[in-house]
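Translate sequence into structure tokens.
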Amino acid sequence: MTAAKTREPGGSWLESLAGSPWPWLLPLAAILLATFVFPIFEIVRLSLTDASLVGGGYEYTLGSYGSLLTSPYFTDMLTATAVFVFFSVLFQMLLGFLIALAVDQGARRGMRASIVTRTAVLSAWAIPGVIIGIIWSILYQQSEAGVLNYLLGLVGLGPVPFLSDPEFALASVTLANIWRGTAFSMILIYAGLQTLPDDVLEAARVDGASAFQSLTRVVLPLLAPILFINLVIVSIETFNTFDMVLALTGGGPGRATEVIALSIYNQIFQQFDLGPGAATAVLLLAVNAVMTAVYIRLLQREEEVA
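Result follows.
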């Protein structure tokens, strides 16, 4: 009886632990802490130092934020990032919507070309950013080897300094990013179009609504939640764009195309300024946190409406 009494509490604890979700959640929590929380903690801590990547000691100071905010390149970096993000997101959503609408209408009419179009657009989304940067750098070559300048030369135009002129370079990088990101917008919006109730669209046609009226008064209001979510996701992705810009211009000429994500790389791995680079990373982290909060709020609103 004594042995049974001593085993009973242990068995009860193991049984309660086996029925608890903690044994399943703890390994995942440990992985998340090691791969997400700890790097974020380290980048915030390093942003409060004057550390350098070449070694040596460091001191805790707010000088990294001071040098970042007073840098003559800070305003240029924010301006380049704002122009890059605004026009990229605007045209990615606009072109993604138009392509998704065309593919959807083609699919409803049984056109096989819609499948080819959908596959071609998806292929752009699957190509790595570095490869896209190399492809567009070949297209933008200012010499006769450049495809775009060759085509412009056939009609008596050019050559255009796509990558050597600061204003052309930012526009060229933005255009390449629009080509890259339109596919994701098309996928999301096309999925949203498949969820629209056919009876509502049919009722609009029976009531005599034109195609434009059905689009603006039926389709767009029904797609509004998906468009807002697409806006937030595309904005976050564009803010974090790094690989394609690095392969295409490396931030040049000068710093004309140095967006925030690329500036972090250049400060840490080119100039070895770990403290200011970490401070810039915290700035980008804050932008992503705000956009993520908006995204989560939109999802919660969708669940409440549903």
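Note: The longest helix spans residues 74-108.
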